[in-house]
User: Fold this.
Amino acid sequence: MPRFYCPLPLAPGLVVDLPEAVAHHLHVVRQQAGAQLTLFNGAGGQYGATLQEVGKRRASARVDAFEAVEVELGYAITLAQALPEASKMDWIIEKAVELGVAAIVPLAAQRCVTRLSGERAEKRQAHWQGIIVAASEQSGRNRLATLAGLEVFAKWLAQPAPAARILLSPRGKATLAEWAGAHAAQDVVLMVGPEGGFAPEEEDAAIAAGALPLTMGRRILRTETAGLAALATLNAHWGGM
Assistant:
């Protein structure tokens, strides 16, 4: 059954106008009145709905029954990802949402090739938000991962952390899998550098601020692989896959 994010108050019996992008999609795939949909607004749970009408730019649906469905992890993982090249960030965000990440923080680190500011940064932020919505619709999540604004690494590091910070680095003495196996499920912040990793002085600052350096094993993973592999590792040890 098609699932759509609808950022409106939802309750059984209401007839709601669906977002224009959803209406366009329904029109393109030739959905007809009477089709069954699933809607969610990010507040938890989902709603069965019946399509009432559909046009090129407008569609409406009657909200039917509420379903208390949740597929969220029992712990919150924040992915603090230094900006990679080109469109790699799109792929990282999409797959991180599928794997259950609770929050994403884009970081501007010393070795980042991609530089964003001003209007370009705002457009990219809106684009990433759209990816989060689409990945949530596809993966069955009823709560959206939060997306922070682009942060300069040093400024972000100086802020209070919402949970223990884990620095993915070859400097680590233990692997993330070993650490996860020895600890109970808990909220964590995964820090992933850009191509070439964080600069030595950035890693030093992170460790001095309390970050725990851990490796992903004997192989060096690309930036677009490391955070996703770490998410999968924690899910495998703590449940959620």
Remarks:
- The CA atoms of residues 72 and 217 lie 27 Å apart.
- The radius of gyration is 20 Å.
- The longest strand covers residues 46-54.
